[in-house]
């Protein structure tokens, strides 16, 4: 299902062709996989519009070998796209607050045979997944009312996070001196980010 990984400078569309959205949708939605719009995946969640996913991935600039966190992994599609971009030298962890979606997304991801990527249920009360030295890249696919400090703190030096805040897509960069820089990259609509996951 998945061909060889490509370098970060290659077109994101190549990754999206290699990791078809159709394989990460409920059967009822698969005939609509080619449409450039959000599609329901159950549990009140959606598979984001492909154009939006592509825009986020371009901002994220995922290099080969990166350590990446995917917050709100849903069906597993974005986790798989990130894994394709990092290649087997990298590692990708998707976290999903809904246990049923996490299980389904992990099964979808498992069919890609990209063993350097995994999905697990988010720890209740914890946003993201802290790791020593932080993450090289963080993708957040749900909208927060304000920039979550807990996630900013998980960006490693030289790292990037793409996150929707209300209806604005932000790129957060961790500078070499440890400071962060935020830039605005347009308006989008996402499902809300819930900071206290359900048990």
TrEMBL record:
<feature type="region of interest" description="Disordered">
    <location>
        <begin position="25"/>
        <end position="47"/>
    </location>
</feature>
<protein>
    <recommendedName>
        <fullName>Protein-L-isoaspartate O-methyltransferase</fullName>
        <ecNumber>2.1.1.77</ecNumber>
    </recommendedName>
</protein>
<comment type="similarity">
    <text>Belongs to the methyltransferase superfamily. L-isoaspartyl/D-aspartyl protein methyltransferase family.</text>
</comment>
<dbReference type="Pfam" id="PF01135">
    <property type="entry name" value="PCMT"/>
</dbReference>
<dbReference type="InterPro" id="IPR000682">
    <property type="entry name" value="PCMT"/>
</dbReference>
<keyword id="KW-0963">Cytoplasm</keyword>
<keyword id="KW-0949">S-adenosyl-L-methionine</keyword>
<dbReference type="InterPro" id="IPR029063">
    <property type="entry name" value="SAM-dependent_MTases_sf"/>
</dbReference>
<keyword id="KW-0808">Transferase</keyword>
<keyword id="KW-0489">Methyltransferase</keyword>
